[in-house]
Amino acid sequence: MAKATITRSSCRGCHGVCQLLVHQDETGRIVKITGDKDSPTSQGFICPKGARAADTLYHPDRITRPMLREKGRGEAAWRAIEWDEALDLMESHFKRIIDEHGPEYIAIAQGTGRPYTEFTPRFCNALGSPNHVSPAHNCYVPRNICAGMTMGWFPQPDIYGRSGTMPRCVMVFGSNIMESGGEGGYCGKMVTKALDQADKTIIIDPRRIKACEGSDYHLALRPGSECALMLGMLHAVIVNEAYDKDFVENHCFGFDKLQAHIQPFTTRWAQEITGVPAEMIEEAALTFARTGPSALIWGNGIDESVSAFQTARAVYLLLALCGSIDAPGGMVRWVPPANLRPKSHMVDHSVQGAQFLSPEQQKKCISPFPLCPGAHPPTFWQACVDGKPYKPKAIWLIGTNPIMTHTRGDVVQRALRDHMEFVVTSDFFMTPTAAVSDLVLPAAHWLEQEDVVYFHKIWCVLSRKKLAQVGETRDDRAVMLEMAHRLGLDEAFPWKDWDDYLKWILEPSGMTFEEFAEKDILFGDMGYRKYEKEGFKTPSGKFELYSNVMEHMGLDPLPVYTEPPLSPVSTPELLDEYPFILMTGCKIKGFFHSEGRNIPALRKLHPDPMVDMHPEDAAALGLEAGQMVEVATPYGRQRFKLHPDDRLQRGVVHAEHAWWFPEREEPDFDCFTSNANLLFGNEHFDPISGAQPLKCLLCAVQPLSDAVESAA
Ligand code: SF4
C-alpha cells in the first residue's frame, strides 16, 4: 500500500507564491496544506486561501469537463462534451472569424497575473490580435512601464537578506500585504519581518492599518492625493539637501530640472492637498533619505488613480534621491538563476511575444492608451457594444471574471451575452462570466500543475509538482499550446506539449524536471549596484529624473499631480448629495478578488459584502453595525453590510469589490447588488496609463429600506 506523503510545492492562490507543504494520504488525496518553515521565501507563512486550496480542488461544483451551452446564453443549460469536440469548436470559430474579419476580432482575456500569464499575451500576439484584455492598466503595469522608462528595470524591495543587509527604513505605501496575504512575489510574513527589523517605518495609507501600530510615521493622506504627497516628500529631500549626492551627480540625468520643477511643491502645498501635516511629510521624507538603506513596499493604492503613472514616477525619483537604487537592502534588480531559459516577461519581454504582432495589427488595438500593453478594458467592452472603433466577434476568457472585477460589469455582461459571436471561458467554477459563455473549459488548479515557477519571484525559481488530477481539467497553457498548433502558430509555440516546453526551459541547466524538482529551489547569483558597470537602459544611460522618453512622447517629463475628477476639491457642488469619499479594492484576506465566496471555510471568515466607515460618521447618520445600507454614487447604487471602523478617517468610506453569491441562481448569482465596481463609471482615466480612479469617488451612505433589505 502507498504511504502518506508530504511534498513541498509553491502556492498560486495569489501573487505571494509561498512555499507550502502538501500532505497526501495513502490514496493520494490531499488532506492538509501547511506552511513550510524551511522555505527561504515564505518561512512557514500560509494564509487561509493557501490552507484551503484543496477545498477548491475537490469542490463538488468544480467544472471538471468541457461544458457546451445547450440553450440561449445565460439560460443555465449545459452539456458535458469531450475535449476534442471543444477544441474543434474553438478552432473552427477562430479560423472563421480570422478569415471573415481578421485576427483583431478575436480577443484573449486574462485575470490577474497567474501561471497562464506566460502564454496569454504570447498567444494573442501570435494570433495577430492586439486585443489582449487584462487588468494591467489598474494593477502593477503602470509602475512597471514607468520603471522601464525611468531606469530600464523594475525595482524590488531587498527584504530577503540576500546581501546580509536588511533595509533600515521600510515605507509601506498603498498596500496591506501584511494582513491580506501576498502580492508581487512577496508574502505578508516577509514584509512584517522587514518592518520588525527596520529602525524606522513609514506607513502611507488612508486607513490606520495594523502595521501603523509601532510605526514611526503614519501618513493618513486623503485618498487620491498620493502624487501630491510624493511631490512634497521630494521637495523636502531636495531643499534639505538630504539626497545621495554621489548617486545624483554620477548616475542621474536632469537633477537641475527637477530641482527647479519641485520648488512650488512645498510640504505646506502637499498638506493642503493631502491633509497630512507638513511637518510630518518633511520628517518622514528626511527619515527615508537619512536612514538608508531604505526599501518600499507598495500596492494598488497608488495604481488606481488618474495620477497613477506620475505617482510612480515621483516614487522612483524619491528612491533615487534617497540612494536606494540597487543598493543592498534597498530597491534592487533581482538576478534570476543562470542556466534557465527565461519564462517570465519580468526577466525577458520577448516572452510575451510582441515580436509576433505586426505594427499594422498593433495599430488596431482597442485602447486610447498605447503605453499600457493590450486593450484598455473599459474602452474594449464599450466597443463590443457600440462598435466603435469596431466590434470584436470572439473572446477567450482565461481565469478571469470581468463581469465582477471590471468596472461597469453590466456593460461587460451585455458585451458577452448580446454582442459576441463566440465566447469561451476557462475557469474552475460557473461564474457570472462563465454563465454567459458558449463553452466553458475546466481549468487545472495549481495543485494539478507541473511547473518551473518563474514569474514574480525572479530572484529564485521554485518547483511545483503535479499532485492531483480531478476529472478532465487541463492546464490553460497546455490548452493554448494545442490551440496554437491547430491555428498554425508554431513559430511562437514550437514546443510539442507542456512537458516539452518545461524541458526546453530547463535545457541549459542540463537538468530534467525530476532533477529540478528534487532541488525545489534555485537562486540567482545576486549582485548590487550593477549600474556602476552597466549604466541604465535609458536614452541618457542614466537614471532619468527628467524623462527623455516622456518628453519625446509629449508627456510631462517631470511628475505633476492631477486632482481626482470627482472629489471634494474638483466637484464641491456634489458634496451635499455625496458627502463621503469612496474607495474600493482593498484585499479581503480569505478571497482573491472574485474568488473564494463558494469555499465554506473562507466564506465563514467573511460572510457578507461590507462597507467600512468611521463610527462617528455612522452614528451621525443613525446607522448601526451590521445594518444593510445603500452606497450611492453618480454612477450607481449597491448594498452592503455596515462595518463601523475607526481605522478609517472621518469622511472616507471603503466598499468591497467583486462580490457575487455562488449559492444563488445562475446566470447572475445576484452579482449586480453588492459590488463596489458598479459604483464607478468609465469616464475618467490616467491620461498616460488608462488607470481608473478607484480610490477616490464621492458617495452617499443611507439605510436600505426595509422592503429592499428583506429582498436582499
Ligand atoms: S499569500 Fe497567496 S501564495 Fe501565500 S499562501 Fe496565501 S494564497 Fe498562497
Keywords:
712 residues; N-terminal domain of TfIIb; Rossmann fold; Dimethylsulfoxide Reductase, domain 2; seven-stranded mixed β-sheet; six-stranded mixed barrel; 29% helix; globular
What is the helix content?
A: 25-40%
Named once each, the bound ligands are: iron/sulfur cluster
- Architecture per CATH nomenclature, i.e. the level-2 architecture of the largest domain: 3-Layer(aba) Sandwich
The number of domains is 4
- Output the CATH class name of the largest domain: Alpha Beta
Find the structural class using helix and strand composition: alpha/beta
What spatial order of strands do you see in the largest sheet? 5-4-19-18-17-6-7
Q: On the 0-100 scale, what is the average pLDDT?
A: 95
Helix count? 25
- How would you sum up the major sheet? 7 strands, mixed
How large is the share of residues in beta strands? 15-25%
Brief summary of the model shown:
The protein is an alpha/beta fold and 712 residues long.
Structure description:
With about 700 residues, the chain is α/β, with parallel strands linked by helices. Helices cover about 30% and strands about 15% of the residues. The chain contains 25 helices and 29 strands. The strands form 8 sheets. The protein has a 7-stranded mixed beta sheet with strand order 5-4-19-18-17-6-7. A 6-stranded mixed beta barrel has the order 24-28-25-27-26-29. It has a 4-stranded parallel beta sheet with strand order 13-12-9-15, with helices on both faces. It starts with a strand and ends with a helix. The site of iron/sulfur cluster has 13 residues, from helix 1. Iron/sulfur cluster binds next to helix 1. Belongs to the prokaryotic molybdopterin-containing oxidoreductase family. It is an enzyme of class 4 (lyase). GO terms for molecular function: acetylene hydratase activity; iron-sulfur cluster binding; metal ion binding; molybdopterin cofactor binding; oxidoreductase activity.
